[in-house]
Amino acid sequence: MGLPLSKYVWFDGKFVTLDKANVPITTHAIHYGTSVFEGIRAYWNEKNLFVFRLDEHIKRFRKSGQFYNISLNFSDKIISDAIIGICKKNKIKKSCYIRPFYFVGDYGINLHVTEKAPTNVAIFTFPFGDLFNKNGITAGVVSWRKFSDMSTPPQAKMGGNYLNSIIATQEAKRNGFDEAILLDHNGNVSEAPGENIFIVREGQLITPPLSSSALNGITRDAIIKIARDLDIAVTETEI
Ligand SMILES: Cc1ncc(COP(=O)(O)O)c(C=O)c1O
């Protein structure tokens, strides 16, 4: 896979070694992008591993699938224990990225996905530090637009949605930028391919509203709350 993946992963209720977590080529999600995922950071402080806002991630994890009637057939408690468990089982002593995901399994060539469609759930982790290995990056507006909720819901973290992020990233890199900035269907700033955007203007923080097709990011929410605690003005407005 090209990542230093942990030895153990969690697959449909069990901790197994990575080589035991396999799916057939007929898996629906491979053909149609019917997967739901989260990206969770955990930070090591030389003593403990702190998982960032686990409950919020699990809440969004379930909600994303509900947009499409894709079932997560495990309780929030089981998923939460599995996420913490995967860190413990792998004896993680470094900051890491945790990727829980569920996806439609063997369901034929079938576009009528219902809550009865079979799903698999998996979690893996790998060491992860900064997203960019430099302090300060360049970002460029790309010609591709962020999809709006008139086509597919931007609040659902679905595998298929990320084709938009991939094509935007390709264009930004081709143009010599570190990162892409996507505009929404009205031409206002939406977000980056996998990050929300804030601008700092005259000591104030400004970020696009969710109506600009931006994901309701958990980091975005943390930044808004921390800024307000520090008496820094935050405005959600079209940019
Ligand atoms: C499209 C998109 N926007 C924003 C974010 C940031 O969200 P969060 O802070 O919840 O990780 C992500 C992260 O996965 C994303 O994929």
Number of spatially distinct domains: 2
CATH architecture of the largest domain: 2-Layer Sandwich
Q: How many DSSP H or I helices?
A: 5
Oligomer kind:
single chain
Instruction: Tell me the β content.
Output: 25-35%
Give the structural class: alpha+beta
Q: Assign an overall shape.
A: globular
Kindly report how far apart the N and C termini lie: 38 Å
Pattern of helices and strands: EEHEEEHHEEEHEEEEHE
The major pleated sheet works out as: 7 strands, antiparallel
Task: Tell me the CATH topology of the largest domain.
Answer: D-amino Acid Aminotransferase, Chain A, domain 1
CATH class of the largest domain: Alpha Beta
* Estimated radius of gyration: 19 Å
CATH superfamily of the largest domain: Aminotransferase class 4, branched-chain amino acid transferase, N-terminal domain
Low-confidence stretches: none
Count of extended strands: 13
How confident overall, as mean pLDDT?
A: 96
Instruction: Give the proportion of residues in helices.
Output: 10-25%
Describe this structure in words.
By secondary structure, this protein is α+β, with helices and mostly antiparallel strands. It folds into 2 domains: 8-127, Aminotransferase class 4, branched-chain amino acid transferase, N-terminal domain (D-amino Acid Aminotransferase, Chain A, domain 1, 2-Layer Sandwich); 139-236, Alpha-Beta Barrel (D-amino Acid Aminotransferase, Chain A, domain 2), CATH 3.20.10. Helices cover 24% and strands 26% of the residues. It is built from 5 helices and 13 strands. Strands 1, 2, 3, 4, 5, 6 and 7 form a 7-stranded antiparallel sheet that branches. The longest helix has 14 residues, at 76-89. The radius of gyration is 19 Å and the shape is globular. The termini are far apart. The site of pyridoxal-5'-phosphate has 10 residues, from helix 5.
